[in-house]
Amino acid sequence: MFQNCFKQNDELKKQIDEFRPLSADALKQIKEYYKIGLTYSSNALEGNTLDLAETKVVIEDGLTIGGKPVKDHLEALGHAVAFDELMNLAKKDFFSEQDVKNLHHLFYSKINEQNAGKYRTTQVIITGSDVEFPTPDTLDSKMAEFIAQLPELKKSLHPVEYAAMVHIIFVNIHPFIDGNGRVARLLMNLALLQNGYNIVTIPPVVRADYIRALQDSNRGNYQPFVNFISEMTLEAQKEYLRIIKRFA
Fold first, then answer.
1. pLDDT tens readout for residues 100-148
2. pTM of the model
3. Long-range contacts formed by 112-120: CB under 8 A, 24+ apart
4. Residues catalogued as catalytic
5. What is the CATH number of domain 7-118+126-245?
6. Which of 51, 60, 137, 174 is deepest in the core (most CB within 10 A)?
7. What DSSP character marks residue 50?
8. Which phi and psi angles does 37 have, rounded to 5°?
9. Can you tell me the distance from the alpha carbon of 60 to that of 238, in angstroms, rounded to the nearest whole number?
10. Would you kindly state where each structural domain of the chain is located, as residue ranges?
11. Cα(225)–Cα(119) distance, rounded to whole angstroms?
């Protein structure tokens, strides 16, 4: 069972803030580190077979890993480009519907240009699940509603809970034909970055817990997922603190 870690998150964030601002060189190295880490973990959650070292080689050296599917390489390259845009968007207070579409386009265009950045035109049905996603004709209104409620959510919720709710709401709309989970994790991290937190990765080893908590949120029980993300944020902040201390 995952616990609410808001207090510990707040305490660690204060410690991290004491080291800011970091040097340009430190920020560059940290950005590249998290680009690889988030790309690997987010893709692995969706079944991508590239390991961390292979993901690094594909992104940084542009090499092809023998025996690995072409799609896995394209997912790594696309996610890395989307990550760069994520860091640009982090300078803003909020994100727009166009920002969401753009992130998906950057991630998905190498895989399927026709559907990249465009809302799905067919209904999504997940075998063995009782989840009912919005129908295609309602996606424009659902996404507009999602974006419109961000200011109030950000104002009323703890930053970590706000980021978790961004993930929940978006993934339950499921606006794209594919890549919704990865865009949801990008948006969750964008919400964290815009609130002064750092990148949070979800290790593949806890995938079952992640999916279970998301399934609870599908049924209207958000707390397990919020708690899960709060623990992932806590672990991410511990790691970030260890990293930045090396640059002190």
1. 999 999 999 999 999 999 999 999 877 656 678 999 999 999 999 999 9
2. 0.97
3. 112/177, 112/178, 115/176, 115/177, 115/178, 118/176, 119/143, 119/175, 119/176, 120/174, 120/175, 120/176, 120/177
4. 174
5. 1.10.3290.10
6. 174
7. -
8. -65, -45
9. 26
10. 7-118+126-245
11. 25
